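Quick start: what a row looks like.
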Amino acid sequence: MSAAETSGAHLTDAQRLDWLRLIRTDSIGPQTFRALINRFGGAAAAIEAAPRLAAQKGRSLAIADLDACKREMDALAAMGARLVAMGEPEYPAALRAIHAPPPLISVLGDVAALLRPMVAVIGSRNASAAGLAFTERVVRDLAAAGFVIASGLARGVDARAHQASIGMGTVAALAGGLDRVYPPEHAGLAQDICARGALITEMPLGWEPRGRDFPRRNRIVAGLALGTLVIEASRGSGSLITAKYAADEGREIFAVPGSPLDPRAEGTNGLLRDGATLCTRAEDVLNVLLPMAQTDAPPQLPLFREAEGAQAAAEPLWDELDLFYEVSVPTTVAGLAFDEPARPAPSPSPLAAPAPREALSGAALRAHVEGLLGPSPVGLDDLVRAAGAPVGEVRSVLLELELEGRLERHGGGLVSLAPKT
């Protein structure tokens, strides 16, 4: 076996290409990749042996096209990205320690951000204004304490977590290729992240994310971080999938409590009931994670020393060929449906700036503002910022809601939705 493929040294270009061909082969996922390298001593030997091994089981296996993989490597280099292999010095130590780490990750931006301790901050895509305001406040304090913020670039809490930590360090894990940012309106945000942080993905360039790809991304978000903070999550939220992955890997789970009247707090309150650490301020996270960040890196699984045929503890998310063991693919994770179904929207160019967002007005603005409100009081400034609308128009919506008995006003200029009677 090549020393470079097992010792943590950098791969040669030829070895990196072999790794890419092997992991881009249909029916080979992280578990099968590890088993093949373990059996045959390197990617080149595995490429030669895998089709023969599959044929012995009455299956066919076509290794990924050499020229196509060369083009992918060239295209990544042209956009300023690079492939980092598991075991190389730039590969995040915490990610390598999970049960099914991606053998290769594509990275665009500041690779050094991957080497700093991280905390994952996730939550509802349909976040409340209060939830977004808390996200910004806690993220700024976590980043100021030296943590890189990891999240999934989704709408709502994820996007606000990235925005609040730009300039201090943030990493976004993508469900598709680096040139297929999802949702597409976050292409500009993705471009900003690359200045002081990084985008990472295990998927090839040009890959449009599908339903199954979002839990794959979620496991990476959880795997990057020493702990995961969930700010808002409904009962069926994909954020709970991320929290499950984090718990399965022995990582810390933090949850922000919410009103039992707000469906967006049902998942986080459930996490607290199940033993997650309560978080009402950044210090609740820092008191737990700072001592961990100041010690050595998380314990790592041996790079290629698993017993052949061993199943990873995590639920499989790949159609892996049963070269050594059978791997099935579920349609749900932990009883939860896959996160945010993909809606293909090809990007005209890598990280192209999105079209300007159409201003909301009338009934659409009212529905948007009402959706941002909840049982928890929120200030007008935070509500206006979350709504992205002029303050006068937001005030008009609030007046309408108040006249209908749908709004409650609190001291200090705070407002909330009135409980239904």
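That is the whole record. The domain at 94-300 is CATH 3.40.50.450 (Rossmann fold). The chain has 15 helices and 14 strands.
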